[in-house]
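Recap quiz, item 2
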Amino acid sequence: VKKKAGKYEKQAKAVKQTAVLGAGIMGGGIAYQSASKGTPILMKDIKEEAIELGLKESRKLFAKQAERGKLTTEQMAEKLTHIRPTLSYGDFGHVDLVVEAVVENPKVKDKVLTEVEGLVAEDTILTSNTSTISITRLAENLKRPENFCGMHFFNPVHRMPLVEVIRGEKTGDAAVAATVAYARAMGKTPIVVNDCPGFLVNRVLFPYFGGFSLLVEQGADFQHIDKVMEKFGWPMGPAYLLDVVGMDTAVHANEVMAEGFPDRMAREGKTAIQVMYENERLGQKNDKGFYAYE
Ligand code: NAD
């Protein structure tokens, strides 16, 4: 499924002004990363609180860099000006590339993507940060599917080097080229992958979460599993990782995976992860998941 990203770069259109839809865990992180590397970004959400949270996180990350002497106070203030928070589509006409990072729900994504396609210039590249939903499927309602591809970041965006650039059936080379170039400008390592539910990384990760969930359902202690996986050499165990990802995102992503691969991913009954979600233990986003947070 892996293709070399380098071959696309010669054809890349310049990406000078970008926008992200959604100011949540991922949207906020994408805005920070773009601003930190000098590409201005509009950050749009439908909730004022989400925008405030997204900005707060960016301020915190820039302040940490200033504390470490990597940025002066002036540089920090300048970088923050690259993030333009908004509740409206007002300035979207001048954007070269949009990253959609709203909730993992195909209906919401369809609505947002068709809305924004109607407002941007004809050659604006649209991308989706979906974790699992097929890019070919999301392109179905678009008028210019050749300008659309996946741009899948990992959480936390500022620390995770990989970005999957996903080529749907109708994605054109120019969209892939611009997205690869933008990922590199953000200091990331892009890989171009073909389209399928879960792409590359989540096809490996979600069966692992499924295995973890089964063990918990059979009575295993989640903290013990985390400790074992850390000793095995992974930077964090599955329970902690699920808290970082968010139980809502994990449940919605797993539904898409189960639909795509019913023989391997569909399960009878409720998983431990679903039970957590139904009990509103979403993870770090609401300070309680497998672990409790302050
Ligand atoms: P989140 O719940 O933290 O944020 C989603 C944001 O979208 C919220 O702020 C919400 O207000 C906003 N939103 C909803 N409808 C909107 C609309 N119409 N216009 C603008 N904003 C809207 O979710 P998240 O974890 O940031 O996930 C966002 C996307 O990124 C999902 O597709 C998810 O699968 C994907 N993703 C998540 C992770 C992760 O670890 N959480 C990793 C990679 C990719």
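The domain at 206-285 is CATH 1.10.1040.50 (N-(1-d-carboxylethyl)-l-norvaline Dehydrogenase; domain 2).
The chain has two domains: 2-194, 206-285.
End of item.
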